[in-house]
Amino acid sequence: MNRRHLFTASALTTGAALLPSASTAQSKPKPPTLKKGSVILFQGDSITDAGRDKKSQAKPNDQAALGRGYPLFIGSALLGAHPDLDLQIHNRGISGHKVPQLQARWKKDTLDLKPAVLSILIGVNDMWHKMNGKYDGTVQDYLDGFHDLIKETKRKSPKTTIVICEPFALKCGAVKDSWFPEFDERRAAAKEVAEKNKTLWVPFQTMFDNAIAAGTTPQHWARDGVHPTFSGHSLMAQTWRKVVGL
Question: Is 119 in contact with 161 (CB distance < 8 Å)?
Answer without folding.
Answer: no
